[in-house]
Amino acid sequence: MRLAVELHGTRVGTIDGDARTFDFVPSPEAIERFGANSTILSVAIPLAPRQRRDHARRRRNWFAELLPEGSQYEHMLAQGHLIRGDTPAFLARYGRDVAGALQIWDLDDPTEPRSPGLRELSPPQVRRMLEDPVGSPLANEASTGKSSLGGVQPKIVLVRTPTGWAQAVGGQPTTHILKPQLGGTLGTVIFDEEFGSRLSRRMGLAAFGTTVADFDGLAALVVERYDRSDGTRVHQEDLSQALGAEHNEKYQEMGGVVSLRRIAEVLSQYASARDLHRLARMVVLSVAVGNLDMHTKNIALLHPSTGETLLAPAYDVAPQAHGPNDGRLALAVNGTYRHQEITRADLVAEFTSWGLRHAEQRTSDALDEIAAILDEETPLAGSFHGLLDEITSFVDNLRSGLPVGGAPR
Predict the structure, then answer these.
(1) Which of 12, 43, 76, 141 has a CA positioned 20 to 30 A from the CA of residue 272?
(2) Across-strand partners of 93?
(3) If we measure between CA atoms, which residue out of 283, 290, 281 comes closest to residue 362?
(4) Strand runs labelled E in 20-169
(5) HSE (side-chain half, CA atoms, 13 Å) at 49
(6) What are the residue boundaries of the structural domains of the chain, listed by start?
(7) Which tens digits make up the pLDDT trace of 348-407?
């Protein structure tokens, strides 16, 4: 199989080979436009005239990490009549609209290039898609859907139009992610995440919109895609891709491949000191609100066409400490995984290990800022009933030098 890989209007290379042996081969035109060893595609896959053979597995993993996870992946396999583990075949079917700005398609498919388009949807139709992950996984239409997006949580991707919502056809860039309200003890999740996203915006860690909307009686979290701007794609890679982590290795305890310090090292090498500071503020906010799921697929790098590398906005900042979980962080802070045991001293020690200057003052300033914001913001009706009090307690304990849970170690 031969797949074209396009970025910023240039075919940056091809994916050649079968499920077991495929590899990415940069194109001469990409090297000419962006420069030899450019990281415009990825810090893990520089556009080298000669690819390192010992990095072939990492390149395969990078493209595999564009695929969804869990039941969503299984439903898309069934829809596309695909075999589990065949990354090239999956991308040939769904690679026209993935996370970031890549467009991937089969060079030997006579129906390519596809003509992107829209199919207008009514609120009841949106609801049916939200409730039908088998028939419309990620809102892909059976024959013309071309969208893929990572993650486990149930969701669909749609296009917001001047008159409402539309299904993407033939690789049209989707603009929003919609997550339906779940049942039982998970019923507050979308409302809790809206509050976490609002705090992120107030701290300047994100700018994209996040609201809860009603679709024919079903509530859903509507998240503006930060990797889309005015209908165009913005390239990104997540830190699992950048660090070569596979599947559940996005959690530090699953093999020890990733850590906050390794993420900081990537930023120190490729980004700016300002982004290192932003990462620290993201960590403080996640600990403060009880976001246990700040793993390496929820932290990303942006790669604009100018060639810079930037830390992507904070996203999926969902308070979870009150939910049914083990209370452990996806990424340890100063070697500590249990959220209730984290202290301000742990935060400072973690940031100091990165080489972040003025770590003590930056940590205190971030906590003071969160405390001031909490005095002005209120969670939506539908959120966990004690959410504001819980987060306020976490922040007060951290500011006082106590563990998040309040009891001294």
Answers:
(1) 12
(2) none
(3) 281
(4) 23-26, 103-106, 117-121, 156-161, 164-169
(5) 5
(6) 2-106, 117-228, 236-400
(7) 999 999 999 999 999 999 999 999 999 999 999 999 999 999 999 999 999 999 999 987
